[in-house]
C-alpha cells in the first residue's frame, strides 16, 4: 500500500482490516482493507477530509464507497416548517447533535426565524410566542413513548413508521386541548447503536414534524450497553404547543343526548393492543414476513401491524378552534370503548354502529386468528377509528363535510340517555357482522364454503397447584383474563391451608381446594385425590407453581403432556423434575428459568420456553433470585398460552413438538 503516511499526516485515523505485514511493508490481504476516519466540527468538513485521505492511498484493485455520510448530510440540511401565524410558514434548519456511545458525531448551525434563538445550545432555545401571532397564550405540553411497539418493530426489522407514530401520538394529544404544536424533541436510547435504524427513525420524526407544522429541535441519542441488551431500544417524544387563553377548552362543553359522534380513520394499533397482537402471533402459523390479510402479497403482516397513527393536526386544528366541536379524543392508544368513554360525562351513554365505518382487514384477521370476542375487540383495539369528535346533531353534516376534505371520516354513533344500571355505557352494535364482512379473502381466509360465522373456541380449563407464596399464580391469572388468552384458570389446589395464594385465587373468583398431603397414608392416595378433584372441574391442563410435592408415576402417565412446571434454571432437568440453580461463583454469566412438561423421566427435550436472566457481578443472591422469579412470571404465562393454543404439544417420544 502507498500513501498511508500521507493520510496520517492530514490528521486522519487509518484503521486496518484486511492488511498484513510482509518484508517490512504493509500489503493487502483481501476483503475490506482500510477504514479512513476524520473527526471535525461538522459532518460536511469531516466528509471532505476523509475523502482527501482516501485519495492519497493507492494499491492494485482499490475501490471505495462514495455515498458514506451523504444520507446524514441530507437529513441535517432538511428544511422544516414552522407556522408563523395564519397563512405563513418559515423554513427552519434542524439542529442535530448525535452521540454514539457518548462521543459527539456531528453538529450543524441552527437557522431559526426571528421568533427563535438558540444561544442555550444543545436541544434548547428561545421561542417568541408573540412572533407566532399569539396575544395571551397558554402553553400545553405532552410526552409519549411507543412501548411494546418498538419491540415489534425490532422483530419485523421495520422502523420507517416509528417516527410518525411518535409525533402523531404527541401532537394528537395536544389537539384534545385545542392547542397548536410549536416544537418537538425526542430521546432515543439503545444497547448497541445501529446507525441506519437511528437515521430512519430520525427521518420519520422530521417528516412528521413538517406535516404537523412544528419545529424538530433534535434527537438525543444514547448508547447504554450496561442498561440495554443488544437489539433493545427505547424512544420517547416531547412536544410543546400553545392555545389562546380566551379560547373555550375542548371537552368542557359537556356532551348531551342526541349529540353525534364522528369517527376519523386510522389503521394503527398501539398501547394495550400490541400486547394482544403478540399473543396472537405467538400461536399463529403466520410470521411478520407473511403477506398481510387482503394485501395480495404487496404488504407484509408486520407492515400492517406497524401501521402508524394518523397525524390530524393540519386538517383538524381550524375546525377544533371554530367552536363547532364539543370534544375531541384520540383513541389510538386505547380500545374503542375506553377512548370514547373519556369524552362522555357520567350522565349519558353512547351507541355505535360498527357497520357505519370501514374496519381495516388487519383487525378482522386478529378477531378470527386470535379467537377474540366482539367485546374483547372493542375493549382492546380502536378497530379502525383513530379519533372521535362530539358535535351537535344539527352541525353534524357540516362538520363531517369539513373533515372529509382531508380525512376519511364517518358518522359512527350518537349520545343517548344512560343505561338502566346508571353511569356511562358504550354499546357497539353489529360489531361481529362488521368484522365478518371485513374478513380477508385469499390465503388467510377460511376455506371456501366454510360457514361465515365460526363459534369461538372454548378456553382450555387450567388448574394451578401451589404449596405457598412466591409463585407465578397471580401472573397466570392476570394473563388468562386478558384478550387473546387461550386458557382459563378454573381451580387452585394447595397442599397447605391458609396460604396467601388461596386468598389471591378467591379474590379473583376462582374456586380453591386444600389437599393436605399429611392427611394421606401414601403418595398414590394423595395423587388420586388430586386427580379426582381435577376431573370434578373438567381440568385439561395443570400448572405446578411452587408445588413442593413430587407426583407419582401413575399420575404423570395419566396426565402426560398436560402438566407444566417452571424450574429456576436453564440447565437440563434432573431426576426429581427440578433443575440445579447456577450460583454466581460457578462462573456462569446467565441464569434464568425453564418452563417444561413434567414427565416420569425429565429431560431437556420437554422444554417449552426458557427465559434467560444475566448474572450481574457483585449482585446479592436474594436480588438475583428475585429477578429469576420475575422471569418466571413472564415465562410461565407465555408457555401456558403456547400449550393451550395447540402451538406446542408433547410428542409420543417425550419431545416438545411445535405446530407447523
From TrEMBL:
<keyword id="KW-0464">Manganese</keyword>
<keyword id="KW-0436">Ligase</keyword>
<dbReference type="Pfam" id="PF00551">
    <property type="entry name" value="Formyl_trans_N"/>
</dbReference>
<dbReference type="GO" id="GO:0004644">
    <property type="term" value="F:phosphoribosylglycinamide formyltransferase activity"/>
</dbReference>
<keyword id="KW-0658">Purine biosynthesis</keyword>
<keyword id="KW-0547">Nucleotide-binding</keyword>
<feature type="domain" description="Phosphoribosylglycinamide synthetase C-domain">
    <location>
        <begin position="1"/>
        <end position="73"/>
    </location>
</feature>
<dbReference type="InterPro" id="IPR036921">
    <property type="entry name" value="PurM-like_N_sf"/>
</dbReference>
<protein>
    <recommendedName>
        <fullName>phosphoribosylformylglycinamidine cyclo-ligase</fullName>
        <ecNumber>6.3.3.1</ecNumber>
    </recommendedName>
</protein>
<dbReference type="InterPro" id="IPR020560">
    <property type="entry name" value="PRibGlycinamide_synth_C-dom"/>
</dbReference>
<dbReference type="Pfam" id="PF02843">
    <property type="entry name" value="GARS_C"/>
</dbReference>
<dbReference type="Pfam" id="PF02769">
    <property type="entry name" value="AIRS_C"/>
</dbReference>
<keyword id="KW-0808">Transferase</keyword>
<dbReference type="InterPro" id="IPR004607">
    <property type="entry name" value="GART"/>
</dbReference>
<dbReference type="GO" id="GO:0005524">
    <property type="term" value="F:ATP binding"/>
</dbReference>
<dbReference type="InterPro" id="IPR002376">
    <property type="entry name" value="Formyl_transf_N"/>
</dbReference>
<dbReference type="InterPro" id="IPR010918">
    <property type="entry name" value="PurM-like_C_dom"/>
</dbReference>
<dbReference type="InterPro" id="IPR011054">
    <property type="entry name" value="Rudment_hybrid_motif"/>
</dbReference>
<comment type="pathway">
    <text>Purine metabolism; IMP biosynthesis via de novo pathway; 5-amino-1-(5-phospho-D-ribosyl)imidazole from N(2)-formyl-N(1)-(5-phospho-D-ribosyl)glycinamide: step 2/2.</text>
</comment>
<dbReference type="InterPro" id="IPR016188">
    <property type="entry name" value="PurM-like_N"/>
</dbReference>
<dbReference type="GO" id="GO:0005829">
    <property type="term" value="C:cytosol"/>
</dbReference>
<dbReference type="Pfam" id="PF00586">
    <property type="entry name" value="AIRS"/>
</dbReference>
<dbReference type="GO" id="GO:0004641">
    <property type="term" value="F:phosphoribosylformylglycinamidine cyclo-ligase activity"/>
</dbReference>
<dbReference type="InterPro" id="IPR036676">
    <property type="entry name" value="PurM-like_C_sf"/>
</dbReference>
<dbReference type="InterPro" id="IPR004733">
    <property type="entry name" value="PurM_cligase"/>
</dbReference>
<dbReference type="InterPro" id="IPR036477">
    <property type="entry name" value="Formyl_transf_N_sf"/>
</dbReference>
<dbReference type="GO" id="GO:0046084">
    <property type="term" value="P:adenine biosynthetic process"/>
</dbReference>
<dbReference type="GO" id="GO:0004637">
    <property type="term" value="F:phosphoribosylamine-glycine ligase activity"/>
</dbReference>
<dbReference type="GO" id="GO:0006189">
    <property type="term" value="P:'de novo' IMP biosynthetic process"/>
</dbReference>
<keyword id="KW-0067">ATP-binding</keyword>
<dbReference type="InterPro" id="IPR037123">
    <property type="entry name" value="PRibGlycinamide_synth_C_sf"/>
</dbReference>
